[in-house]
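Readers of this paper often ask what the protein records in our data store actually look like. This encoding replaces a full spatial description with a residue-level series of whole-number codes. For reference, a complete record is included directly beneath this paragraph.
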Amino acid sequence: MNALPKRWFLPFLFLLVTSVYWASIAGITSSNDGSHFALLRAMTDQQQFEISDYLSFTENQDYALNGDLYFSDRPPGTAWLTLPTYLIGQWLPALPLPTSKHDANNPHLLYALIPTVTAAGVAVLLLYSLLTRSLQISPAIATFTVLSFALGSIHWKYATLLYSHAMSSGLLWVVLGLSLHWREHSPRPWQNLLLGFLLGALVWVEYTNMVAVAWIGSFYCLWQWKNRTGLFWFVLGGVLAGLVLMSYNLLNFGSPFELSTFNVDTTRWPQNKSFANDFATPIWQGLPALLVWGNDNQGLFLLSPVAIVGLWGIRPLWCYSRILCVFLLGLFGCMLALFSMSTTFNPATNDGRYLTPFLGLWFVAVAFGIQALPKGVFTNGVLAVLGWLSLQNQIWHIAYSWGHSIDLSQWRSWSIAPDNLARLSHAVFHNWQNLPAWWLLLAGVAGLAGLARTLWFARSPKDTA
């Protein structure tokens, strides 16, 4: 792929991975994405946050209570960020899905998944950019690494769902990219304000991102310590983002500090009585489960064998830049430790999904591990096998997931029977019929962006001044 002209490589990479994600969409598949979607429908149809009329999407379990009023128990950011494309989609052609567990007859449901797919694709591009521009990784190694991340980890699965994880991943990588780009510069006040706001908005999509906000914010403040004015605007941006969420909490739950996740039906979800209850698993039980296996959870190295190479890459990354090693892998380690103590790190999805937004951080170490391995045919063969196993694991993981549910009772006993492969492809790529619509959407956005760029540079010097 790196044989493409340099200017076309990133657009092609985005087109490739997002096309795979778009084709794999199976609609609203469970109570989790159903809860996000219930909030989205309440906002669009009734201009309110209360979701009583859409409670069935939550499967009568993933909701928050305030008296006799029902709300989504999910952080509101995913629904907020999905709102623009879903509203615009009401004016665009219908895109019927072959299947969807909830709201299956909604011809505009697919437009709600556009931000999720886009955010996941942006995370892939920014990981590639970090590897090649900031960390001096060769394009070939960077390409293999980002494809392993994009299609050989659970990032693929959650790029297709209206869960919070893909949105969190995209927003996280935007914040990381801007933080690293400006760490040796003096950004303008509005740029610091924007970065602070985006950093604070991470909590909109996932409450546990508060740990990431504190980690990234602390490092950025150290890098910009001499720029006191810039830090003021940076902190102000974070405060503004926090005020938005606090206003939502105040309006719906009576206090700016009342989070939706702690207002659930605790007779059903007793672990959500408090933060201490929610993170009460001994770390020596949760950590092996998130990395390999435990409590029926398929860990990172089991689902993505290529990620094992990251263990070999920690030392080279440390030698290259200690501060970046601590910044990137330290954040991954913090989130890994946090989710290892979660009482719901395996909520029937069997893959440690909460770690999804931070997997790209580990794949930085994977890239350094590949670069440090001895060069030769044997090494290339081992990497090819690990990459293939990772890809294959994701295909089967998606095929078994909610909304896909491959039926093995119809499986023929022949290992590579064409109809077996057809059933597997159909189970994974539920939405392949709508691929032309995705390509047209991308072409339309690219055309508008090109037109805006042309008009901008066509201004006269007098206008520019």
